[in-house]
Amino acid sequence: ASNGANAGAIKAGDTVDIGTAAGESNLQVTKSGNTIQYSLSRDLDLDSVTTGNSKLDNSGLVITGGPSITTTGIDAANTNISNVADATTADQAVNKGQLDAVASDLAATDNAAVKYDDATAKDKVTLAGATGTILTNVKTGDVSSTSTDAVNGSQLFATNQNVDKNTSDIA
Known about the structure:
Blueprint: E1 27-32, E2 35-40, E3 48-51, E4 54-57, E5 60-63, E6 68-70, E7 73-75, H1 96-109, H2 153-170
Antiparallel strand pairs: 1-2, 3-4, 4-5, 5-6, 6-7
């Protein structure tokens, strides 16, 4: 009988076989003389374990109303993840301290960046500096009647050379 179902009386002289179900490895039963001992395996093999609101099975750990770590991903359930070490490789998560450092570095360079006067219209840039600003490494721009490219010093020099030659030829 199991758990009292189909119970039957055991009479004097009857043999009682006590053991575990076939294939069961989590519970061991031993008999020594008139003593029967049960012991639980130190390495349990179960389909799932439920304790309170937490369930652990082959798909992962799920805490009802809380975080879960499953084969489909990690859900922090809108809670903070604490004690995250600084990431050292590209495939690691970063922590708030690392993000704050990046934000601070970016803020420190903000006044060095060239920005549009109006970020929406993007029609004018005013360079700072009381005595003006020199632009260097300007690529040769297109010089034509339809061009809106900037020209560089070498282009102006060539134009000045042509003006000087024409002035000399005319004189």
